[in-house]
Amino acid sequence: MLTPRQELLLRKVVDAFSTTGLPVGSKALAGDEEVACGPSTVRYELAVLEEQGLLAHPHTSAGRVPTDAGYRYFVDRLLHAAPERRTLALQLVRREVDEAMRTATETLSQLTNLLAIVSAPPIRTTTVRHVEVLLLQPQVLMVVVITSTGGVSKRVFTFERPVDPGLADWAASYLNERLVGRGLGARTLRARMLDDDLSETEYAFVTGLAPAFTELEETAEDTLYVDGAHRLFAEGRLADLSQLHELMEVLERRAALLAALQQALDSREVYVRIGAENDLPALRGMSMVAANYGLPQRNLGTVSVIGPTRMDYREVIGTVRAAAGELSRFVEDVWDR
Residue 150 gets which letter from DSSP? Predict the structure, then answer.
């Protein structure tokens, strides 16, 4: 446990280093009115913090910088403190999910000046809102599925013989009656499509259209919205070129990044991983701050930022938390339509 003075000095070092990127000296700290002690006392306390692995001393004559452990101690206190009430003007009302996710990602990156990543709700969490069965040509038919999130899926079927237009119209009415409001991830979806009272012709026709619904979840890929990589590159905020290349590679390997974000999705609080705490080697020189969003009893996705360990954690945590709250309110409205 640190003394109140040591906690104050650690916070001052973290704040100053995050702002300037320069080691923080004892003279500068002693000149802070809030510290209220002389340079010799400050030097002693900084040495104690260094012995505990919370600060590092890059050069003999230089000041101190936070270590990953120092950032972790600082962040843990931020997470346990009462969260600052903050809202973001994301203007998500009346947007479809895809557009809302893009808006949230762009805004988050602009506000934090970091790489922002938002994972979209998986297709299995959505329901069928409307079905269209369109006869494009005598033997070509398209099934359009509109989900509760505004997503649109199209599947074209080709038949050996011309399709009866009346049968296509009947199928549209029948499928809407049977499937609207049903979850795409439900195992009972196929069984719901088929009714023992159907004629042989109707049964065969509906069975032929089933893949438009039953294979939708299997073929859908989890979507990640990414924005702000150029901000890290342009300002030289990462240590070296190899770190930039590693980051680009992990962005391309979406499966690995989704696995890292899944840990945040399972977390009840804001999820922060600093430096070596990250499982992905490419992120071990950086920090990730993430929070989940969704419905009261179900998390649907994550809002996250990635950047150098030298970031304004207080500001970033508050912004990520607020963005997740805005998206939660948005999806609650969308899912209830």
Answer: S
Question: Tokens for 273?
Answer: 């991983």
Q: Tell me how far apart the alpha carbons of residues 281 and 275 are, in angstroms, rounded to a whole number.
A: 9
Per residue in 67-85, pLDDT (tens digit) is 999 999 999 998 887 777 6
Q: Are 68 and 276 spatial neighbours (Cβ–Cβ below 8 Å)?
A: yes
Q: State the DSSP H helix or E strand holding residue 260, giving kind and residue range, or none if neither.
A: helix 254-265
Q: Which two tokens stand for residue 152?
A: 């649109």
Which residue did the predictor score with more confidence, 299 or 164? 164
Residue 96 has pLDDT above 80, yes or no: no
Query: Which strands, in side-by-side order, build the sheet including 298-308?
Result: 224-227, 115-119, 298-308, 286-295, 271-274
DSSP classification of residue 52? T
Q: How far apart are CA 62 and CA 16, in angstroms?
A: 14
Answer yes or no: are the C-beta atoms of 18 and 310 closer than 8 Å.
yes
Give the whole-angstrom CA distance, residue 327 versus residue 80. Answer: 23
- Tell me the pLDDT tens digit for each residue of 157-176: 999 999 999 999 999 999 99
Q: Which whole-number Å values give the CA distances from 85 to 7, 169, 230, 287, in the listed order?
A: 24, 52, 30, 23
- For the CA atoms of 280, 51, 313, 247, the dihedral, rounded to the nearest 10 degrees, stands at -20
CA-to-CA separations, 126 to 47, 59, 86, 183, 337, in angstroms, rounded: 55, 56, 29, 6, 12
